[in-house]
Amino acid sequence: MRKIYLEDTPLHEAQVKFLQLFDLKPNVEMVPTTESLGRVTAQAIFANVSMPHFHASAMDGIAVKAEKTYSAHETNPLRLKLHVDYEVVDTGDPIPEPFNAVIMVEYLHQIDEETVEIIEPASPWKHIRQIGEDIVAGEMILPIYHKIRPVDQGALLAGGVLEVPVIAMPKVAIIPTGTEIVEPTLNLKPGDIIEFNGTVFASYVKEWGGKPIYKGIVIDDFNLIQQKVKEALEEADIVLMNAGSSAGREDFTSSVIASLGEVIVHGVATRPGKPVVLGKAYNGKPIIGVPGYPVSAYLALDWFLKPLMHQFLGLASPERRKIKVKLGRRIVSKMGAEDFIRLTLGKVNEQYVANPLSRSAGVTMSLVRADGLLRIPIQSQGYEQGEEVEVELYRSLEQIDRTIVFAGSHDLILDLLASAIRKQDSSYSLSSAHIGSLAGILAIRKGENHVAGTHLLDEKTGEYNLSYIEQYLSNTPVVLINLVYRQQGWIVQKGNPKQIQTIEDLTKEGIRYINRQRGAGTRILFDYLLKQVNLSPDDIYGYTREDFSHLSLAAAIKGGNADVGLGIYSAAKVLDLDFIPVAEERYDLIMTKEFYQSEAGQLLIQVITSDEFKSEVESMGGYSCRDTGKILYKNEVTGK
Amino acid sequence: MRKIYLEDTPLHEAQVKFLQLFDLKPNVEMVPTTESLGRVTAQAIFANVSMPHFHASAMDGIAVKAEKTYSAHETNPLRLKLHVDYEVVDTGDPIPEPFNAVIMVEYLHQIDEETVEIIEPASPWKHIRQIGEDIVAGEMILPIYHKIRPVDQGALLAGGVLEVPVIAMPKVAIIPTGTEIVEPTLNLKPGDIIEFNGTVFASYVKEWGGKPIYKGIVIDDFNLIQQKVKEALEEADIVLMNAGSSAGREDFTSSVIASLGEVIVHGVATRPGKPVVLGKAYNGKPIIGVPGYPVSAYLALDWFLKPLMHQFLGLASPERRKIKVKLGRRIVSKMGAEDFIRLTLGKVNEQYVANPLSRSAGVTMSLVRADGLLRIPIQSQGYEQGEEVEVELYRSLEQIDRTIVFAGSHDLILDLLASAIRKQDSSYSLSSAHIGSLAGILAIRKGENHVAGTHLLDEKTGEYNLSYIEQYLSNTPVVLINLVYRQQGWIVQKGNPKQIQTIEDLTKEGIRYINRQRGAGTRILFDYLLKQVNLSPDDIYGYTREDFSHLSLAAAIKGGNADVGLGIYSAAKVLDLDFIPVAEERYDLIMTKEFYQSEAGQLLIQVITSDEFKSEVESMGGYSCRDTGKILYKNEVTGK
Questions:
Q1: Domains, chain B, ranges and CATH?
Q2: pTM of the predicted model, to two decimals?
Q3: Where is the MoaB/Mog domain (chains A, B) (predicted)?
Q4: Which chain A residues are Cβ-neighbours of B364 within 8 angstroms?
Q5: Across-strand partners of A634?
Q6: pLDDT in tens, B564-604
Q7: Which of A123, A168, A500, A538 falls 20 to 30 Å from B371 in CA-CA distance?
Q8: Which ipTM score applies to this complex?
């Protein structure tokens, strides 16, 4: 049917095998120094002129002959005449002959228009910038393979270097392939996939100092793809083919490369990122077959294109900063491949804590949200919760230090909150993990987050959250603050075709329910509602089908693979679904006392209590901010 | 005569005073997502479509109805028919109705063209990417004030966001002023100063996300400058005036700003950087009067323009990484102003060591060479040698870790060596401090450098360097390796107008000698030459005038403020001076044993022993590489 197995070349081996094939002899071009920012020197650059190229005054004052001032003393002031004993000079002026020292204006006593008095002698060459003080003609300003910074441009111009030989920017052709992909559009037919990898690739090529050449989409046809790659090999230094790099029916990357040269590696032992093709064309140029999944694609570029381009430019491929972090959750890895896990990071109680994001290669948002990357070696089976591991940083430590770590129940207003915080003080950001109310509370206990969002109903008291704090956080000083009241209800297809109104309607033939995960406040609410009418989970078809957020639950209904779920009004509204109100509930924030008292905590309070935030929230519908920001409870912990 | 005193506003106070004046309401513009790299979101961005927007196969395989596969078992294989029980799907394909699971191709046993056999059931939604798995329509992709990265572009396009509202790039007008400055040229008249700050400013404006508008040089004329600033205030968001910011005769910046608005601060308590003018124009726009000296200018931009532009863009102004380092030399500071000291950094014996560069505000090269910046508080008198201080990094720690730290005698071939090392392995660099042979040896003893360059003659034995190692490095394991033999001689004006041939000629009336600093090998050689002919330092006019390198000594002669000095042939040649040979001497490298055995040490040896390096050196003239790379001595240190 199809060739289904790829090689399992270890990543490092693949990198060495591939990169050593290209001893690139880059082209050199001359650019005006004024336009050389970010370019890389193709040879050492030496000064053409000295700077200064004349003896220049370093101060505002007068130029004198030092030898003529030696008698000046407080008890024996010396008078000097303009054009005879001195000339007035400003900073940067040439020192007129025969003078050899400058006296600062601060030390002059003006007698009349032509006469000054001094009470201290000047020593020869004092306050004079001698020729070449900064740069001497012939001196090296920059070594070879140096990336030109603004200050370097200054030194080059000062040294009379008006043009610089730099390495020509590597040209990288980008060829997206696939019959199903379409240029970005909002008119999508089922099966259409928006081509976005090409834009991402082009941006990385720019960031790494190259020139992208976007070749346009080619459908899955061996001959058309081969033709386009041939064309690209003529005009570019490096060719990227996107998608079709696996071994499916219509994966032509590998065979096209084989037809135009040699396949060096097909398949690396990584998860994600396995279906990479590395090749060398008939004309000696590198071709990289980049996987179609965005996360795999990103990693493949980072592993192969980035070092290749830097090799081309004569630069060391920059490495990201690494730090040690504590894992907030257990991470399992199958042996046989290196795992690359995207993580969110935060600093909680002076300790960096990491939590894994989606491991799916198709989830672009896992890259957008990632603060760091964890690499699990081939032979490892993963790490336990609480274990310390080393991660590569995607954001600066400074940014991570100023990230408010939220974990708990999902609500759409968390997005609003994230933006409102940045609006108030953009040095801060909010990262949120939607793990459910109970898990959010447990995370507080384990010191993994600053804030938990929770709406846990105590069936006995009808009160929210308090009894859970008593149960789980009796040893952790925390503050409970209301965020919002919100409407929960049945989210159903537009027009409510299955006519769902009451909870009993869910038990009808052909109704497919979709539930939230265990520990989610919404699930606890559903269980409570079931009990009230004496129904059991077994009466609900789909009770065991779990989703992790209001939005993705609503999306499942929108997509037609469920008929109804319990969720918040805003999720229904955003996806243009119908909503039948069931209950209003209280959604609170629990924060550690330490965080509450910190600058970040006070910022958060300031933001949620602002009129702007509250009116934005209420305008979404289904929310009431009547108690937003109200402190509901502070626990007193003995010994703390 | 002139107003000569500026204010001494503490830097932090000046920053707060200035920045709080501008609550900038930035313009928003729409840009295509494909061109949004590096731009800053002007609002939170939400997905327009879900990704995927249909149920998609996550694998190559077949789509089936999960419920129909439940009976499949190893002992009871299940046969499925094409177009009845299954359809073939590739990764990314839509799942055809009514199927709800995918079985991977690896688990299929093909019976005939239309029939496959399976031995394991599929569970519902297995290997299907449900609608919105990556992004749900309505979900926030990016918060406000987020700098767009390549992956963000991918997520935006995937979420159907084809255009992004971003903050318009701040326009920054640059007005260089000064009658003496000229656009970059090689035809310099005495007094001409090449205008290079404008280029440096423009590049920083670009790096910080703005659009520079270069307004061209204006001569020192109040009305012309005022006119140009007015023009700039109309078209730009921020105006930079360069030079003229002090209080000299022709320093109009402050008065021009006062005439067009208000001067907020004139003079900050810093060294360098004091003459800054901060103002607010009649139309509310900020004007910065940037000092003329390049180092002062750079610091002023970093203190005021960088935070201002980031405030404009809604971003936190990025801070540089800080590390603790040991000071290789004592640094003295006068109280009353903060001192900003540029430093070179290196990692020697697992310890970061810092050495100050030139403190002159006019030395552009001190910025080019700087690895970091030390800030000395107003009330401090400085730091002792060996003291630990915190510095801000100008280069990455990774680059500093791979810097070979050279200190010792100056030679022009050190520039060649720096380039040759980068050519061989551009992840390494060489930083050299020209402190003289003896100081280089003492630095080795104190653990401040990896390599010292030395050519110290033992007058008794006529041998080079060895006796100095015995004297100073008896407790430090080192290796002595020859770098080169070189010609020392009299460097004189072109045509040798003073007719200098022998050392006795230096004692003639009207001959102005220029010497090297104490501890320099060349000075020791000169003393030795004097002794040989029974002359004393007192016989030489200018014996006490010291210069720190061959090149700057040659530049002093070129500039006419000395007639002769002892130096190497290459320095004379580079500056087109005449050279009268006096002696050939041996110039060696001393390296610590630890460095010698390291990867960096072996790289250095490999480079100097390469034919390419040796022929480059010899082609400069005045050098012989007959022993280059030869190990001359290794000391055995007990207990090491």
A1: 11-24+170-313 (3.40.980.10), 28-52+133-167 (3.90.105.10), 56-129 (2.170.190.11), 322-401 (2.40.340.10), 424-428+444-634 (3.40.190.10)
A2: 0.93
A3: 173-311
A4: 51, 134-135, 151, 154-155, 158
A5: A479
A6: 999 999 999 989 999 999 999 999 999 999 999 999 999 99
A7: A168
A8: 0.93
